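Purpose: get a first structural picture of the assembly so the mutagenesis plan has something to point at.
Setup: two entries, given in the order below. No constraints added.
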Amino acid sequence: MKIVWIDDDIEIIDPVIKPLIQAGHEIAKIRTIRDALDSIETLRTCDLVLLDMILPSGDDEDFGYYSGVRLLRKLREEYDVATPVIVFSVVDPDRVREELDPLNVAGYVRKPALSSDLKKAVDAVLETQNNSGAGK
Amino acid sequence: MAVLMYGQMWVEGDHRSAIARMRHESTVRRLQVGEDDELELRVYYDNIKRLSRRDLDLLDGQLSSLQRLFYDMLSEEQERGRQAEEIIHDLQTRLQPVLALAENLYYGICRVSGKYHSLGVLQGTADELLKSALAMRVPIWNLGSYMPEYQFEPYSLSALVKEAIALYRAEAERREVEIRTRLQKPSTIQMSRMHLQHAINNLLHNAIKYSYHGRYDLHRFVEILSEADKLDHVLTFSNYGVGILPEEFDLIFEPGYKGKLTYAEYRSGSGMGLAITKEVIEKHHGAIDVESRKTDGGAYVNKFIVRLPRKQPQREEVK
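Result (structure tokens, whole complex):
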């Protein structure tokens, strides 16, 4: 399965994705909101997106502190990206839940998390996708 | 636990510094670590060391980053206005790879021993570390004991640079940034060693951290040049990195100021590092200047130039 991870702290990624790689998943990395908006087709066609809530814009535009929420809203509402999203972030879910609920978030894993817990969440979402016939 | 474990590694290593040892011992005292905890720490460390040199090196790099943040947080007294959430974000982000590496290593140990145990203890340890750090933050700042008084003695600038490189080599390799040096000898001046080390560490770490992530097809490097003229020793830290706008050349040394381009790229950092660096250099009767030039390809060449007098004034003149 192809997973896209949107997170600016790319140096944290390698040890965290090891169990996912070992399970045969392919991981693509995106660092900024600008890069994400330049990769809409990738986000549309992948199987799952892991999304941080605090992201750099990558340009002059100010997306606010919880910039990941605004990015997800854009993806859902303006770009018609329906790919399942797991929010993988330090941010307390309760701080953003109200804004995220209408945006069809498939799961929430709070950093720092065990890599195995992240993999469990990913497996659960992908299994649901497959069972519902929406898997690619 | 992660910080303590890292400190243990520093103390045991054959090329580690007295400053690191002092920091570690100070942390052990602050956290009131018992003998049993220290023993457990040593057993855990020994097991990992036997298992995998490469993974240990990776963990070492991550813990180095965490340790730096931890100590900076404790030392930056003027940073009290910083949003607690930003501090938590920085700490927990750095704990993430530590936890993942520890888990990967742990499963490696389990494979060797054939016994698998719950990993809840690791997560609990990470949470405890964070809570301890946050709980300690205010009282330790109030004590103001992290940065001691300036104590001047003759010491080599090149040795400080080498110490900084040893500290950040793993991070540079992880970010695929080459560190080049041209260090002139002799470079001994009267200095307050711990303070100047802190300043040089900060300049090198910034140069590594704010190198490009590969958007431009450039070989990424940090160059540290040490030279001397009649009056001064001059240290220049250069990189291809995220640029600094001309109107910010003075502002970036103001406490709490975050460069527009670096903040747009990273959303991290306290904005205190360069302010502290400038203060330390001025205490040595030196000066720091910045140059940032956009190249034809769009990348910036940045230079931080530190001038330190070869002959320091008599100590009674230093306030």
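The interface with chain B takes residues 8-16, 18, 31-32, 54-60, 90-91, 111-116 of chain A (CB under 8 Å).
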